Each structure stands twice: as structure tokens, then as C-alpha cells.
User: Which sequence fits this backbone?
């Protein structure tokens, strides 16, 4: 065997080892992220079924107390009314926190329904006009649905809260053996390289999470000209 042949074989062996290590790294990364999502699901359920139910019972008891008060007991009636308002606000905050941690609709009805809920709730909370355009999607496993939902959630938060966008468009299409998710906004924009290097706004986390699934994140923006976030992820990521 010539020296050149030996070098080629060594190179191929090294390349195969690197590819195996890369696959193993991605598999472990996905496993860690799945544990995090499972924990989010558990905490969300605890908030909704535990804290939320207790607050609902407390609110019912306060209504009963209010109904039992004498008509002239204005001071105590005012105190109960304040307690009822505080209880109602806390109950709504708890439900919202539970939904944002892990919306039940994602597990119950799938990605499309979850994205429509996310777009609607983000528009209501931020005042931005948020639209969604989505193709008929092939069957997606839970991990891929969660990945696309989290990327969309992070991008919408960045656009509405950090970039001050008034108009945001979410588009999800199938492109051959991949899915292409794009989020356009008319916000303040930024330097994409600086934004990714800073590690802020969750952009770095989005990029690393997509890499675990063989996906890519691309940003196109300029100061004062909004941003386009493009996430491409293969349907077969194993």
C-alpha cells in the first residue's frame, strides 16, 4: 500500500470518527433539551392544576363571603372586593405563565394550532399586527414540533419586545426534505453578526438548538430596516 493510499484511509477514518462524534453530540444535546421540555410540561401542569385550581376555589370562597356580608358593611365589602381583584389577577397570571411554559394546545392539537394560538396571543399582548401563513405539513414528531414552536416563540418575543415591531409575519413552508420557518418584522433591526455574538435576545440559543436537529439559522437585518429570521430544519434529523 502506497503512502498516499494510507493517508487517504487515515483521513477517511478520522472523518468518520468526527461524524460519529458529531451525531452523538447532537443526540445527547437533544436528550438534554427533551428533559428540559418535560420539566416545563410538568411545572406548567402543576401551575394549572395545582396553584390555578386553588386560586379558583379561593375566588369562589371570596364571592361567598361577599354575598354573606351585611348591606351596610361597606368597609369590609371594599376589602373583599380588593381581595377578589387580586385573586383574579393572580389567577390570570398563573394561567398565562403555565401556557407560556408549555401550552397544552401543542401537545393536544399539534404545531399548527399552537402557532395560531401563539400568533393570536402575541398580537393581543404586544399590540403588534401578527399574521401566520402555513402550508399543510407532513406528520411531525413531538421534538420537531416543539423546536419550531420555540423558535417562533423566541423570534416573536424579540420582534415585539426588543425590536418594537408593529407588524410581524410568520411563514412556515415545506421545502423538499426540509421545513423553512421565516419571521419578518418591521422593527428597529440590528447588525446580525453583533446580535449573534452578543448572545442576547435568545438568538444564539435558537441557532444552537437548530444545530442539534441539523438545522440552520440565518438573520437578515439592518439598523432601522426590520429583520428576517430564517430557520431551516430537515424533516429527517436523526
Assistant:
Amino acid at each position: 500500500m502506497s503512502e498516499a493510499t494510507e493517508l487517504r484511509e487515515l483521513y477517511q477514518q478520522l472523518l468518520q470518527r468526527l461524524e460519529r462524534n458529531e451525531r452523538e453530540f447532537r443526540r445527547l444535546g437533544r436528550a438534554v433539551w427533551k428533559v428540559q421540555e418535560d420539566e416545563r410540561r410538568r411545572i406548567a401542569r402543576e401551575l394549572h392544576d395545582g396553584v390555578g385550581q386553588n386560586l379558583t376555589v379561593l375566588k369562589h370562597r371570596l364571592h361567598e363571603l361577599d354575598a354573606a356580608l351585611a348591606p351596610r358593611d361597606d368597609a369590609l365589602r371594599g376589602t373583599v372586593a380588593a381581595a377578589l381583584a387580586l385573586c383574579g389577577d393572580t389567577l390570570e397570571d398563573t394561567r398565562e405563565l403555565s401556557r407560556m411554559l408549555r401550552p397544552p394546545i401543542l401537545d393536544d392539537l399539534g404545531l399548527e394550532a399552537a402557532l395560531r394560538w401563539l400568533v393570536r396571543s402575541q398580537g393581543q399582548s404586544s399590540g403588534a399586527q401578527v399574521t401566520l401563513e402555513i402550508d399543510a405539513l407532513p406528520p411531525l414528531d413531538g421534538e420537531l414540533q416543539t423546536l419550531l414552536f420555540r423558535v417562533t416563540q423566541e423570534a416573536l418575543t424579540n420582534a415585539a419586545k426588543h425590536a418594537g415591531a408593529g407588524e410581524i409575519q410568520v411563514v412556515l413552508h415545506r421545502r423538499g426534505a426540509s421545513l423553512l420557518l421565516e419571521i419578518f418584522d418591521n422593527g428597529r433591526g440590528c447588525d446580525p453578526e453583533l446580535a449573534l455574538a452578543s448572545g442576547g435576545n435568545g438568538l444564539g440559543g435558537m441557532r444552537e438548538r437548530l444545530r442539534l436537529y441539523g438545522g440552520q439559522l440565518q438573520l437578515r437585518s439592518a439598523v432601522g430596516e426590520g429583520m428576517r429570521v430564517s430557520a431551516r430544519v430537515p424533516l429527517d434529523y436523526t
In short: The chain has a mean pLDDT of 91.
